[in-house]
Amino acid sequence: MDRFERRPVGLVLLLAALVALIPFVNALARASTAPPDPGGNGTSLAASGEILEQAAVESAAVVPQPEQQDPCLHCHIVGENKGIWTPLARWSLFSSMGLLFVFGMYRSASVWKNRTPWVPLTKRAGEWVDERYEVSEPLTKILKKPVPKYALRWFYCLGGITAFLFVTQAITGIMLAFYYKPTPEAAFVSIQYIESQVRFGASIRMIHHWAANLMILMCTAHMLRVFIMGAYKKPRELNWVSGVLLLLLTLVFGFTGYLLPWDQRAFWATTVGSEIAGSIPVIGELALIFLRVGWDVSAQTLSRFYALHVIAVPIFTIVFMGAHFIMVRRQGIARPL
Amino acid sequence: MSESQPDHKDSIPFFPDHVSTEFKVVLGVLGVVLIFGILGLVAPLGLGDPADPLNTPLHVKPEWYFLALYQLLKYIPKTAGAVAPVIFVLVVAIWPFLDRKVETTKRNQRIRFIVVAVGMIALIAMTIWGEVS
Known about the structure:
The complex is a heterodimer of chains A (337) and B (133). By secondary structure, chain A is mainly alpha-helical.
């Protein structure tokens, strides 16, 4: 018995015994208050066996009916028509739990009195990481970097809004890609499916559509702000170049995404759009064939635009965005005149 | 690099001051995005007729951001109309290397503002013209 002493075996056994006792007490309570009618029920009773046998002898033809459920749920919960035993058992169970709770509170209080200073879990997790990878110092440097107050004017947030809209586009785009099928036969129908069958599909598509237009507007507005204020000057030339590339990538996003619904508007917009590219001398035809994969807008074009829209352009955009942000961090925000 | 390390009087720390400001902006944009989403529930974007390569509709238009260019191409020679935007984009891309003078007054800034305003008005006018024509 020694090896059991430090384990709560007794408590567990006691609880198990209590649980096992419940149906017995319940049955007993039923037997003492509502004696089952000889017609059928009282199956769990030891005593009812005899009654049942008697009933069977009296009327063998009577099939035992399923036990009638008490229609009064409230009386059932309160235990009104259960006699004395059910409430007693319940109260003893609840009060033992209550005693356990009080005991736990008492123990907690004594532990709390003798506690070591409490360290929040988040802080402990942070220390765990910092102990191994030493991130706290560079992170503090990043977080405490002073931002000039003039950068709080409203027109300085246009670039940030563009970045946030890009994240929105990424999330909603992934959601749409779960259902979209980039073939001429299935594209139109899959978007109809998104609009009508997918939960919140119409919402997500609407967000993707309008946030795309908003992103182009915000990107252009950001660029004009930088241009007007002369923020592109030395030492920020490359930041401007990467920004122009990002605007072009945004336009490519728009151009390739516009074809994907594969309706008349999309098809013919792509046709005339690639015609513009095709009318550039020297490289025009090459550009047109690259865009359309042949002379006409076809299934191949759709596949290509889809791949560009969901894989190639996002990768380039993320790379250039990273470069753009790192350069801004290194050089700070240009001081206005 | 003195510019990137302003003194404490006219600067705020990136975290939490600046981040919280940015967060408010993000919340605002999120509100707009949510409005889009609710609009999508009320009145879905919808689709036109399925694409039919054999049936050209009456008014063929590109996306709105190419509309001004498309409208321009209708009235000027095609090669010129296609080369001009390419050259324009190239000039814009290398603009910092062309405009290298260090500015001390706001004069150039105002000139650039006027240039941008005129350019944008022209662009918007072309877009609207393209939309209604």
